Amino acid sequence: MDGYDDHPLGVVTDGSFSAGLTVRLDGDGGDDVQVGSFVVLEGNSRRYFSLINDLQLRATDPGIISDPPIDSAFVREALRGIHTFTAAMVRPSLVIDNADSIIGDAKPRAVRTIPTHFARMRRAREEDFDLVFGAEGKDLFAIGSPIAMEGVNVTIDLKKLVERPSGIFGQTGTGKSVLTRLILFGIIRSDIASALVFDMHDE
Question: For the chain, which terminus, N or C, has the lower number of CB atoms within 10 Å?
């Protein structure tokens, strides 16, 4: 996919399993990275499918913050990416063994560990999503694309979805009704269950 290569966005510098990891972004990477983006942390033998929760501005010297070089564009440019940088707060969600191969029997599982210092972070690619969520097919229904990743599908297993009670929750205007209609369309099209709708708000 255009724009989604193996170029690293940054490296893990610190963090913890419970609080999440800090990734120092390369250069001016903060302008190209968004909160809510999916990324992959590449450890020695595992890949960590992760989500960016926050972005922070950092400096290596407190003196730079207390006396910023407001009047000197040259000094600001000299400091950028070296003494001033952007850090991403990353939360690993799933881990995949056999990091050197995207194919094979590697299955995503719950995270119980964290990568080492300086593990590289890259953008999640289409094949990462296919491995984690599954490629769109008869039972796997595409419900949308992640932030800033048009053309990459996130799928759900409709058969597993209808096996147990489910709920769609969110704040006003976040797309609950649209998602509900989309899932109902997938269930009806796949003919795996019947739908009885009580629309209390006439939507």
Answer: C
